[in-house]
Each structure stands twice: as C-alpha cells, then as structure tokens.
Amino acid sequence: MTQPPLIALEQIADGAFAEVEATLDGDAESLVLHRQGDEVRAWLNVCPHAGRRLDWAPGQFLKSKDGLLVCAAHGASFELLRGECLAGPCRGESLRAVPVEVRDAAVWLKSEGCV
Predict the structure, then answer these.
(1) How far is residue 39's CA from residue 65's CA, in Å, rounded to a whole number?
(2) From CA 20, how far away is CA 74, in angstroms rounded?
C-alpha cells in the first residue's frame, strides 16, 4: 500500500517549517520539514537532548536570526543542512533525518524510512 504525500510543497513557505505526521516502521511519528526553494529536508520532531518535541506549539517552530532551528524546550540550535546541534545542551548531536523527496508538487516519504 502506497502512502499519500506528506504535504503539498506550496503549503510550506520558502525558508519555513511545517509539521506532519507519518508512519515510519509501523509507528506514527511527528516530522519537522524545512523547505529551501524546491528542496525539503525532514527530521523526527524530537530533540536529542531530552526527547521532547522541537515545536513550541503544534507546527510552530522557532528560527534564530542566524537561521537555525531552535528547540522550544531548552534552546538547542540546529543547522538546517544535516540537523547538527551547534549550540545548547546537545551540541555535537544531530536530529534524526527522515528521507523525503519532492515530486508532483508534493513532499513524499522515501520508502527506506529513517536513516
């Protein structure tokens, strides 16, 4: 059975974030998506520091003036290429990437699941 697209590309403003639910390895997971032009990156919506969600309210994410994703709970700051924590309590750790692809004007989960 093929999963539907996660979200239409146009629903994510360029440079912005979105939260979607996806089934990974049989489990429902919250994902954070970040759009940069026609590319979208995805990570589990879980901070490696304390296992809490990154958003401060469902689907609402903080972005620093330097363009980093900031965990609302403890302020860990993640760069948006690899999801590496550059500042805060989990410096040097990374968000768990989830492979996605953009096709047919939508964001789709790649079949291989989490990496």
Answers:
(1) 21
(2) 22
What does DSSP assign to residue 13?
A: -
Cβ density class 83-104: b for 16+ within 10 Å, e for less: bebeebebeeeebbebebeeee
Residue whose tokens read 């924590």: 85
Strand order in the sheet with 69-70: 62-63, 69-70, 77-78, 85-87
For 38-86, write each residue's pLDDT tens digit. 999 999 999 999 899 999 999 999 999 999 999 999 999 999 999 999 9
Distance between CA atoms of residues 99 and 87, nearest Å = 24
Average the pLDDT over each of 52-56, 85-89, 99-103, 111-115 and give the range with the smallest value: 111-115
Beta bridge partners of 44: 31
